[in-house]
Amino acid sequence: MDTVKIFALGGLDEDGKNMYCVEINDSIFVIEAGLKYPENGQLGIEMIIPDFKYLVENKDRVKAVFISHGHDDVMAALPNLIKQIQVPIYTAPLTAEILEKRFKKEGISNYKIHRIQRNASFDVDGINCRTFGVTQSIADGFGLAIETSKGYVVYTSEFIIDYDTKNEAFKTDITQFTDLSKKGVLALLAESVGSTREGHSAPRHRITNLIENYFEDAEGRIIITMYHQNLYRIIEVIELANKYGRKILFYDDALRELLMTVEKLGYYHIPAGLELPKSKFRQDMDNVVVLISGDGANIFKRVHKIAIKEDDMLEFKKSDTIIIASPAVPGTEREATKMENDLYKEGARVCAVDAKRMFSMHAAIEDLKMMMYLLRPKYYIPIKGEYRQLVTNANIALDMGYTADKILVLDNGQIACFEDGRLSKSSDFIKQEDVFVDGKDNLDASGMVLRDRETLSTDGAIVVGIVINHKTKEVIGGPDIQSRGVIYLKDADYIMKEVGNILENCINEAVRDKKYENTSCRMDARDRISKYILKETGKRPMILPAIVEINTQE
Which pTM value belongs to this model? Predict the structure, then answer.
């Protein structure tokens, strides 16, 4: 009989950073490798990714990474993982195209992507894996089922039940669920982001009925903001532009590139003659829709740049109708507020789509109930969401008749172990830390870099330097003191003078006691200066002493 372990390296009690693992005997299958956007206090951090330490330590047992769709919260950390371990990637054609472009940008060439269909069955390391298409905000999304001797472990990915979707690249095939149910489902891992919403997400996931009146009324340009990975809604905007006879300009080159890939795969074609190339755009054009897109906070920064007249191509006019259809996500609230504030200063008509009326394309209560009803899993594991959402999802399972011992609300790193088709224990943990990424580099997971940045942003820094004779240790230059963000130097000459005296005294005392050593002397000076500055100013700036030793000519 198979021993099955299920655990998350990210995605539980948080929004983003999704990574789930299914371990069957000695084989590890990884599902997703996503990022999380930093919070406002996490200064200078570009993204937060899962801790790959367990996977790196067991790299010979990692047989596959499945990426269910092309959103950053499930795939953006994959380049970071592939740089550390070589593992086959399984994903659908559109996501594969997106990933290959990212790998090229990152300079990664040693990877292998298996392009799989949304409704397929194949073996990985002798274990049967099945995919099933689900309706998401981007094309080619799928859920995954991994077979064990006691039934499938099923991962839903993001999904909604929408019977009106006509595009094959977005459709859900419900017959796949019933087929999996017949063969038995050991555990169902279902998303929790929308678990607090009543009813089904459809049809309230569509944006057309919320913005079409603006297309009817607008006399000037229509400018609309969208997340560029929300392909479903972007297509809705394109169709509205076509319906009302407006040309459409794609402000973001990355979106145009994505749409070209979608066209190449045959998933959707922009109506002929509808697109307005950037080269033909003029500021005095009125009968046009300008679609501004981006990822995370970038979209708000772009619009803010246009609003303060720092953009080379676009400038807002009073006759514009500006539709904000990109609600703020966690970590982007500050940029969104700044953007909206500056837009209102322009005097244009600003229309923010009500996020409460525009449902994100995540499973609501009735969607989750339907998934449980069709699959009839033995165990139910809420995933993908903040803790309150995980608990709400668990309560839905309780309402469906599942007992508490069949519902597992886990923490990141907590291992649910199944033997002979039954939960044997869930007390083991894999130690996990957030990994902060600054640019292309991973920072330490301890948070020391963040603490230093917070100190610099709040209390500033003092740099004090001195030059001494390498042989005699006599001071021959300085001390020189530089203060940034601590105090106004003209008002505090006596403080700066005393800071220099403290460093000089530390050197003289150490030399006198025959205990001088450069590093220890600097540490001693830093501690003394910190206490002095705290006493005089009430601040705790970063203190950076520098002792330069040089050889002088006799």
Answer: 0.79
